[in-house]
């Protein structure tokens, strides 16, 4: 039987060393600094999130007034008749923008309609003239006026 030369064996030790060979990590002093940094970053994230929410809410329009299409008749190629309902405060007037679009989603007609004060739930039927045959009709947005 042949004996192995210990010098001839390949080195099987890890290249970076074993965990027990490494020195102890020094303990951190003043851990409050790290906590404070995370607290500041968290506060910044909260402010940005709330700000973005406000921007989205304001971009949507007045949340106090809402318009909804009940039905529309697109039988006439030059116009569409829209029946829609508006929910708003009873003591305020509103303006709603009606929109007619074709099959590609291109606007072919629009009209702004004043909704008088007096009732909080108003149902109206309006005619919107179109440049081409309308495929769909929408209440694009409504807002309160003085």
Helices, strands, pairings?
Elements: H1 32-60, E1 66-73, E2 79-87, E3 93-101, E4 107-115, E5 121-129, E6 136-145
Task: Please tell me about this protein's structure.
- It is a single chain.
- With 146 residues, this protein is α+β, with helices and mostly antiparallel strands.
- Helix content is 20%, strand content 37%.
- It folds into 2 domains: 30 residues; 80 residues, Immunoglobulin-like.
- The protein has 1 helix and 6 strands, in the order αββββββ.
- A 3-stranded antiparallel β-sheet has the order 1-2-5, with no helix packed on it. It has a 3-stranded antiparallel β-sheet with strand order 4-3-6, with no helix packed on it.
- Strand 1 and strand 2 form a beta hairpin.
- The termini are far apart.
- 13% of the residues are buried.
Give the N-to-C terminal Cα separation: 107 Å
List the domain count as a whole number: 2
What strand line-up does the widest sheet have? Answer: 1-2-5
Principal-axis shape equals elongated
Taken as a percent bin, the fraction of beta residues is 35-45%
Rg over CA atoms: 35 Å
Discrete helix count: 1
Q: And the CATH topology of the largest domain? A: Immunoglobulin-like
Per CATH, the class of the largest domain reads Mainly Beta
Main sheet characteristics: 3 strands, antiparallel
SSE order, one letter for each helix or strand? HEEEEEE
- Averaged pLDDT: 87
> Roughly how much helix do the residues carry, as a percent range?
10-25%
Could you list the spans in which at least 5 consecutive residues all have pLDDT below 50?
Answer: none
Instruction: Indicate the CATH architecture of the largest domain.
Output: Sandwich
Instruction: Give me the secondary-structure category.
Output: alpha+beta
Beta strand count: 6
């Amino acid at each position: 039987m042949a004996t192995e030369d210990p010098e001839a064996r390949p080195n099987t030790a890890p290249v970076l060393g074993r965990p027990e060979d490494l020195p102890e990590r020094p303990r951190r002093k003043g851990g409050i600094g790290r906590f404070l940094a995370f607290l500041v970053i968290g506060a910044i994230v909260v402010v940005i999130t709330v700000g973005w929410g406000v921007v989205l809410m304001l971009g949507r329009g007045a949340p106090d007034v809402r318009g909804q299409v009940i039905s529309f008749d697109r039988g006439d190629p030059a116009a569409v008749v829209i029946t829609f309902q508006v929910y708003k405060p009873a003591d305020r007037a509103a303006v709603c923008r009606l929109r007619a679009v074709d099959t590609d989603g291109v606007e072919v007609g629009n009209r702004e309609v004043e909704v008088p004060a007096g009732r909080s739930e108003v149902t109206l039927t309006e005619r919107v003239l179109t440049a081409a045959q309308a495929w769909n009709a929408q209440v694009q947005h409504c807002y309160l006026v003085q």
